Amino acid sequence: MISSQHAIEVQDLTKRYGALVAVNRMTFSVDRGEVFAFLGPNGSGKSTTIRMLCGILKPTSGTGRVLDFDVVREGERIKEHIGYMSQRFSLYEDLTVRENLEFYAGVYQVPRARRPRRLDELIAMAGLAGRAHQLAGQLSGGWRQRLALSCAIVHSPPLLFLDEPTAGVDPVSRRRFWTMIFSLAKEGVTVFVTTHYLDEAEHADRVAMIHQGVLQALAPPAELKRTALQGQLLEVVCARPTAALAALQAAAGVKEVALYGAALHVLLDPGADPGAIEEHLRRAGLRADRVSPIDPTLEDVFISLIGAIEK
Questions:
Q1: Apex 36 CA angle, 147 and 52, nearest 5
Q2: How many domains does the chain have?
Q3: In angstroms, how far is CA 155 from the centroid of its own chain?
Q4: Rg value, the chain, Cα
Q5: Which is the most buried residue in 140, 174, 196, 242, by most CB within 10 A?
């Protein structure tokens, strides 16, 4: 039986397609009211995992419970009690904002007496008050995403699945969208979100990183950044970053090196001398403008983790 503190609990959850193992013995739990970020490159098993948790896809083996419903036997009950949204959430472009909300209120069987007040609440929460009678097809990407989220929660679900919800949305709209997500979490809604934006995952309560269908790391963002990288991380600024990248990749004591805009992030082996970096560059005919220790980001952790697996 699932613990009352958990909205999701899975043990050895596995999905195979013939010889392909899309999700391999996945084990984790998600607390009620938690914002849980699920990260992984394309093809890593994120969407397959979500589809199993939503009761859409039956696992090959393993067990799982979502809101105390069994993912194998009670898929239809799960669908009734969750909200789901992706970057391809289906809005009806020839319906207005309010008409879309009314449609989904009917789909989710929101009591008729409750609908007017609930729709007013959602329109206000999404900042769509001045656009309630505008056609959905005339909305910009950011407005459409906020409307899609409102449609997904019209029935006040305790658990919300968001599958790449802000892909292709501008940074300002992404920030406003996440403001809505955090407001829901404060009200006790559990949010399970997949994203390619590492800056978004920084604000989650916990982050799960998966690769090739396997759960590779699971911890709060601060803990991942503190413990996942073995060695010292440096930022190197020089006039020719691409040439410096090539020079440092083969340098002794350098574990990893990657371009970050016009700078380099260089991960040294434990015990390696940071002062040797400038000497490595000098021997290659290059000069470093700055070499300084930095705190890792989730992007550093993610790239290092995937790189280590693929070596």
A1: 80
A2: 2
A3: 23
A4: 23
A5: 174
Length of the chain: 311
- Residue 310 counted as domain residue: no
| Contact between residue 75 and residue 55 where contact means Cβ atoms under 8 Å apart | yes
Query: In which element (H, E) is residue 278 found?
Result: helix 276-283
CA distances from 229 to 21, 22, 118, 203 (A): 28, 27, 46, 20
Give kind and range of the element (H or E) at residue 310.
helix 298-310
Helix (H) or strand (E) holding 76: helix 75-81
Residue-range definition of the domain harbouring residue 272:
230-295
User: For residues 240-253, b (16+ Cβ closer than 10 Å) or e, as one string?
Assistant: ebeebbebbeebeb
pTM over 0.90: no
Instruction: Classify residue 274: in a domain, yes or no.
Output: yes
Helix (H, G, I), strand (E, B), or coil: what is residue 24?
A: strand
Residues 220 and 239 in one domain: no
From 199, 225, 251, the end of a domain falls on: 225
Integer Cα distance of 118 and 155 in angstroms:
9
Q: How far is CA 295 from CA 28, 144, 265, in A?
A: 28, 36, 10
Gap between the Cα atoms of 227 and 232, Å rounded? 11
Report CA 146 to chain centroid distance, whole Å: 17
DSSP code at position 296? P
Higher-confidence residue of 283 and 88: namely 283
Which residue from 59, 54, 78 is spatially nearest to 68, judged by alpha carbons? 78
More reliable by pLDDT, 219 or 164: 219
The single-letter code of the amino acid at 231 is: G
Q: Are residues 255 and 150 in the same domain?
A: no
What's the sign of the alpha-carbon dihedral 210, 213, 216, 220?
Answer: positive
Reference 153, options 197, 113, 112, 183; nearest CA is 183
Residue 90 counted as domain residue: yes
User: Which residues make beta-bridge pairs with 237?
Assistant: 263, 290
